[in-house]
Write a structure and sequence with these properties.
Length: 110
């Protein structure tokens, strides 16, 4: 998974794991996190996203299903959970989204 919008408070891995666990608990899940890290170079005015891995595929499915609940929780409205996709998967996903937008535009005009 990729987690976007989680502020960078320190470089401590244990603190990062506990913050990820608190976000996941807000969506009703308490999975075991196998590994996590920040992606990219640290910059002053930007927040790097977090890539994390869970130990169970069942938790993976449940977290994705419930990720939208974060929008309604105070303090978590700007945090998003997305599946980790390869460049080919991202390209295919973006193509699907563009096709959907075009179809919606055509229906709105009709």
């Amino acid at each position: 998974y990729d987690l976007y919008g989680l502020e960078e408070k320190s470089d401590d891995d244990h603190e990062l794991v506990s913050r990820i666990e608190s976000v996941l608990s807000e969506v009703g899940e308490k999975p075991v996190i196998k590994d996590c890290c920040r992606i990219g170079l640290k910059r002053e005015k930007s927040v790097r996203h977090v890539r994390f891995f869970l130990n169970s595929s069942a938790h993976v499915i449940q977290v994705l299903k419930n990720a939208r609940k974060l929008r309604n929780v105070d303090g978590y409205g700007s945090i998003y959970i997305c599946p980790d996709r390869s460049p080919e998967e991202r390209k295919a996903y973006n193509t699907l989204v563009e096709d959907l937008k075009q179809k919606q535009d055509i229906e709105c005009v009709s």
